[in-house]
């Protein structure tokens, strides 16, 4: 089964809570709104990838979480604390202890060696004994392959090595949260992989990592991804299930989704839903059984990332009398009216046909008899 990709399922308290965050940049050229009413939570032990095209607002979002830049509207709570309401001096200390930040353009101090750059946050926050700091600094540099470069200045090593040093620096105080803006963009595959492995083990120890990334290699390691498009968060169920649709279409469809949570194995009453709505599996699994040819039934098991509908949308007479049964654990589904989809895709019949074909594929299932069905479903 696929990992749950939507933290909204989680009934734990969020560690980081962005509510109604907006950001408008104003300069001589005019104003530009880079973030529009972002509502987003992050939880302990998550390894979250933030993805989106260049200019979509990823770095701006990260700057709101780290407190490096102020939102135009909205609040960011970290551990219940409103970070933008803190005094600047308190904020610097809070950040030193609680956040490791890897900036997109490294921002190492040029007059300090790589090791001294890593020691600086430790000296600032006094979390580790002074005589243990150099050893810890060297360990962190070794982790990113820089043990031989420790005493060099940033200007005399490569961009990739500076970036590696910035990652080591972000881990200096073993912060509960690491926020990294494309931290492996300049690294060779091997170094990038050891960074991912370290991040992976840190989340295993309860740390939270938020990472802007373009690297498709990383996806299997992430707890989930957050897709940003033109300053908005795309609804995760759409981002996960229909990522191949144009982002403006996904943005437009998001508000039309309706979620429903169910528990127990009783079949769902989907009367009136299947004829004109798409149904997405957000959490949990369902089995679909439909009346197939002769006395055989078709059964399909669907998981997060799958979606289905009824014969009204599919024009498929072999998909009659569909029974939808939740499997084992709690189920969350999201429904979307098909006419909203056709409106949003008006004139793009190729995309509508692709969606129909995909639905057919997802729902194709296996022909089984009643006995097999009992064994499979309960
Ligand atoms: P990303 O990191 O996804 O590439 P950014 O968050 O850096 O995107 O930028 C989002 C948008 O905001 C872009 O259109 C960018 O040009 C604009 N922007 C970013 N910083 C500023 C700024 N300081 N002043 C004006 N516009 C800005
Ligand atoms: Mg950026």
Topology:
Elements: E1 16-27, E2 30-42, E3 47-51, H1 58-66, E4 73-78, E5 81-82, H2 88-98, E6 99-102, H3 114-125, H4 133-143, H5 159-170, E7 177-181, H6 189-204, E8 208-212, E9 224-229, E10 232-233, H7 236-241, H8 247-253, E11 258-262, E12 277-291, E13 297-302, E14 307-308, H9 311-314, E15 320-337, H10 338-344, H11 349-363, E16 366-368, H12 370-377
Parallel strand pairs: 3-8, 3-9, 6-7, 7-8
Antiparallel strand pairs: 1-2, 1-4, 4-5, 9-10, 11-15, 12-13, 12-14, 12-15, 13-16
The chain binds adenosine-5'-diphosphate and magnesium ion (MG).
Structure description:
This protein is α+β, with helices and mostly antiparallel strands and 378 residues long. The chain has two domains: 14-233, P-loop containing nucleotide triphosphate hydrolases (Rossmann fold, 3-Layer(aba) Sandwich), CATH 3.40.50.300; 249-362, Sandwich (Jelly Rolls), CATH 2.60.120.10. Helices cover 31% and strands 29% of the residues. The chain contains twelve helices and 16 strands. It has helices at 58-66, 88-98, 114-125, 133-143, 159-170, 189-204, 236-241, 247-253, 311-314, 338-344, 349-363, 370-377; strands at residues 16-27, 30-42, 47-51, 73-78, 81-82, 99-102, 177-181, 208-212, 224-229, 232-233, 258-262, 277-291, 297-302, 307-308, 320-337, 366-368. The strands form three sheets. A six-stranded mixed beta sheet has the order 6-7-8-3-9-10, sandwiched between helices. Strands 11, 12, 13, 14, 15 and 16 form a six-stranded antiparallel beta sheet that branches. Helix 4 (133-143) packs across helix 5 (159-170). The model has no long low-confidence stretch (mean pLDDT 89).
